[in-house]
Amino acid sequence: DTGVSQDPRHKITKRGQNVTFRCDPISEHNRLYWYRQTLGQGPEFLTYFQNEAQLEKSRLLSDRFSAERPKGSFSTLEIQRTEQGDSAMYLCASSLGGAGVAYNEQFFGPGTRLTVL
Amino acid sequence: DAKTTQPPSMDCAEGRAANLPCNHSTISGNEYVYWYRQIHSQGPQYIIHGLKNNETNEMASLIITEDRKSSTLILPHATLRDTAVYYCIVREGKLIFGQGTELSVKP
To answer: Is the CB of A45 less than 8 angstroms away from the CB of B43?
Structure first.
């Protein structure tokens, strides 16, 4: 399967614990995006990378959230001191991007569903 | 960012065409119109995109008005598996999802 993969698919944690999610994009894609989706809402943009550089972060991404893409391949999203309000589906997407790319079809992974008790 | 307006829900009979409208009156000249859909408990799936001209692929057709202020996604022969939330998005780079249209295809 050459699509976007995410691990784990489900995570249940207690309030105050730290969690880390991983995303493996489509191998030739240089852009990687993180979104968060709560029940009944559309996905909300959190951050994106072009290669290893984090180019944009949403105001939704509080200081407790950090994302990395150290070698321009897979990415991790860490949430420190989780709160019940962090319960959501965390989606990762990848695409080609940059000069010469006129549009931006993003391919999404299946998501990681986080439940904070 | 250009905002989009979509009806919250629509029904369609199986085998009939589903026409999903979207208003994007503040779209700028270099912004594409993208359509994605999200089937329950899955990640969003790209359907089609367009700039000025009408577009067709194996999944759907996209009709964009001449002034580019609105568009319609057409599923020519809807099936039960097309039941999903459909998002119309106008943005370069990151995607700004609205509430979308929840399409229910009924037998």
So the answer is: no
